[in-house]
Specification:
Elements: E1 28-32, H1 41-54, E2 62-66, H2 72-82, E3 88-92, H3 99-104, E4 108-111, H4 122-129, E5 134-137, H5 142-145, E6 152-155, H6 160-172, H7 174-191, H8 194-214
Parallel strand pairs: 1-2, 1-4, 2-3, 4-5, 5-6
Helix pairs in contact: 1-2, 1-6, 4-7
Length: 215
């Protein structure tokens, strides 16, 4: 008669914000994804190039892409064609225990997946737990875990211009990044922390047990 959904949990003690945010204009935009077409890394690269076009005075912001996959060579070629190779770092795959450190090296997290490739935005809530504002596309479970204008920005999938303009807002406004990042961690702690999700799962099982006893 009723379905209860308990989401993935995040270890809030492992996924934490970095201790100190240096007072610098150097901003790191990043993602942690498999380099496959469905995850829209090409859209991110094109949006980042458009950001650089909009903000030619920005000589320091970089894009950090963490992950491996079949599209790596094509994505590196795209960055070269667009003339922004020097501003993009392809890190490659990292073990999961290093993901929190990778997230703490970033200032903005981006997930611009296309189609319905995201059943649930695990990487997004991990980024939020690390106090990062996020930029996501409007597919699958991504909008479910992001509060638009509060913890990040939601843009139409495959919309390079919309993503680029969102990057302008996030990169050029440090106070906005700080505000949205703090709200993101608070939201994750409230809805997606490991302890909270375990408690919800136990409550569901207890309710099912009592219902079975009554029958």
């Amino acid at each position: 008669d009723r379905i209860t959904v308990v989401p993935f949990g995040v270890d809030m003690d492992r996924f934490t914000p970095r201790a100190v945010h240096a007072a610098t204009s150097h901003v790191v935009v990043g993602t942690v994804k498999t380099l496959a077409p469905k995850y829209g890394i090409d859209t991110l690269i094109r949006a980042f190039e458009r950001y650089l076009h909009f903000m030619p005075s920005d000589l320091t912001t970089t894009l950090r892409i963490v992950g491996k996959g079949p599209q790596r060579e094509a994505l590196e070629a795209l960055a070269f064609t667009l003339g922004c190779t020097s501003r993009i770092r392809f890190v490659g795959a990292v073990p999961h225990e290093r993901v929190p450190d990778e997230l703490r090296s970033m200032d903005v997290f981006v997930a611009l997946s296309r189609a319905d490739s995201e059943s649930f935005g695990v990487a997004v809530i991990e980024a939020g737990a690390c106090g990062l504002p996020v930029l996501v596309s409007d597919v699958g479970g991504l909008p479910e875990v992001v509060e638009d204008g509060v913890t990040g920005r939601i843009v139409p999938h495959d919309d390079v211009e919309a993503a680029a303009h969102a990057l302008v807002d996030l990169i050029t406004d440090a106070s906005l990044r700080k505000q949205w990042g703090a709200s993101a961690r608070e939201r994750v702690a409230t809805h997606y922390s490991w302890d909270r999700c375990v408690d919800r799962m136990i409550a569901v099982l207890e309710e099912a047990r009592h219902a079975a006893d009554r029958t």
